[in-house]
């Protein structure tokens, strides 16, 4: 309005029709300036635009991530911005290996995100890895009741952890910034979208570790990629490149690592502006009929793993890693 008034003087064009909403709003604003002198309109316009540019230049308006970080997490950085809650695994020196504390904190963060006012939720990793999976030193923390008790409590933790992903009500997106191993791969079948850097790899070396599949992957992987390809991953531990994982349907889209963060977050910010209730309800329609089955599969996989953790095959594999004799 001020620009039109400064250049053309008081409003002098016919009023646009009632359905021409944008031009009508512009016309109303211009007309409201009445017979304001052109020079005053020019000065007001300059003042307004200068004010806009100085406020957008001021970096003090943008809170640094440290200030936006939600308190109470030691193994994660959790932030909420642009209707997106981002849960970032934050043990980069340990390749984001998942400790008992991290499993518990991810469950807490998911429960909070399911109730906050964000539209979508993202899980990602800090540093060069997405996650190297279960922290194998979890197995060294044996309680006085013995190893059976440890296997039992681990199976309960695993089951609760995977249940949180099965039940998560909003769109859940994995931003796989680098290699992913073990449980960080298997739960991807419970996400709605998986974006991967072309540096990411997908590795489920359960037989090498004397273990068996979890995260409902014994059901979701054959469904996603067919039984033959799923067996190569889950039984023989074949490591997939991001391109292979995308071709087999586990990954939604692969991006060059150099532009990964920029491209993915631009896309996610656009998605987060979609009507949140419609997205939640669409997810329910897509996922709900499978929920009961997934809970039963999770319970069964956890029960089988509880036994595996007590096997010599598993004990030897974990000892070999912890004594630096073996790596994947
Ligand atoms: C409640 C329990 C639920 C359990 C659910 C069942 C889950 C199953 C799985 O997730 S199976 C997968 C388990 N993961 C692994 O076997 C990976 C083991 N790690 C490796 O083989 C390698 O570290 C690597 C290939 C991931 C990376 O190799 P490299 O690039 O050479 O780095 P480093 O080995 O030097 O790693 C740096 C630092 O991190 C420690 N670390 C990495 N991953 C793990 C891990 N999974 N558990 C424990 N520690 C890990 C590594 O030891 C190094 O530590 P250091 O600097 O030496 O102190």
UniProtKB/TrEMBL annotation:
Chief subcellular location: other
Coiled-coil annotated spans: none
Keywords attached to this entry: Isomerase, Peroxisome
Compartments where located: Peroxisome
Catalysis: reaction(s): a (3E)-enoyl-CoA = a 4-saturated (2E)-enoyl-CoA; (3E)-nonenoyl-CoA = (2E)-nonenoyl-CoA; a (3Z)-enoyl-CoA = a 4-saturated (2E)-enoyl-CoA
GO CC terms, sorted: mitochondrion; peroxisome
One Pfam family recorded for the sequence: ECH_1
Entries under InterPro entries matching the protein: Acyl-CoA-binding_protein (IPR000582), Acyl-CoA-binding_sf (IPR035984), ClpP/crotonase-like_dom_sf (IPR029045), ECH/Chromodomain_protein (IPR051053), Enoyl-CoA_hydra/iso (IPR001753), Enoyl-CoA_hydra_C (IPR014748), FERM/acyl-CoA-bd_prot_sf (IPR014352)
EC number: 5.3.3.8
Residue ranges annotated for the ACB domain, each copy included: 1-58
SUPFAM superfamilies: Acyl-CoA binding protein, ClpP/crotonase
GO MF annotation: an example: delta(3)-delta(2)-enoyl-CoA isomerase activity
Residue segments, region Disordered: 52-71
Protein's recorded name: Delta(3)-Delta(2)-enoyl-CoA isomerase
């Amino acid at each position: 309005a001020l620009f039109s008034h400064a250049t053309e003087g008081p409003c002098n064009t016919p009023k646009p029709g009632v359905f021409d909403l944008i031009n009508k709003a512009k016309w109303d604003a211009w007309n409201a300036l009445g017979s304001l002198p052109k020079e005053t309109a020019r000065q007001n316009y300059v003042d307004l635009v200068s004010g806009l540019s100085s406020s957008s230049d001021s970096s003090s308006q943008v809170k640094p991530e440290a200030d936006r970080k939600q308190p109470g997490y030691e193994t994660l950085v959790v932030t909420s911005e642009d209707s997106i809650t981002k849960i970032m695994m934050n043990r980069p020196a340990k390749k984001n290996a998942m400790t008992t504390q991290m499993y518990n904190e991810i469950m807490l963060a998911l429960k909070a995100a399911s109730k906050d006012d964000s539209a979508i939720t993202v899980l990602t990793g800090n540093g060069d890895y997405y996650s190297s999976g279960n922290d194998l030193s979890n197995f060294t923390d044996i309680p006085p009741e013995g190893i059976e008790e440890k296997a039992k409590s681990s199976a309960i933790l695993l089951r609760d952890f995977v249940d949180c992903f099965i039940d998560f009500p909003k769109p859940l997106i994995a931003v796989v910034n680098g290699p992913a191993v073990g449980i960080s791969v298997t739960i991807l079948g419970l996400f709605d979208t998986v974006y991967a850097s072309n540096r990411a790899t997908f590795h489920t070396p359960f037989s090498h570790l004397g273990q068996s599949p979890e995260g409902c992957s014994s059901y979701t992987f054959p469904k996603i990629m067919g039984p033959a390809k799923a067996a190569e991953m889950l039984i023989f531990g074949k490591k997939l490149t991001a391109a292979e994982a995308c071709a087999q349907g586990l990954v939604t889209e692969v991006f060059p690592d150099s532009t990964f963060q920029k491209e993915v977050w631009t896309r996610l910010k656009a998605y987060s502006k979609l009507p949140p209730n419609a997205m939640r309800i669409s997810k329910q329609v897509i996922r709900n009929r499978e929920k009961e089955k997934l809970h039963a599969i999770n319970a069964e996989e956890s029960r089988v793993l509880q036994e595996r953790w007590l096997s010599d095959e598993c004990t030897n594999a974990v000892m070999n890693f912890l004594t630096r004799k073996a790596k994947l």
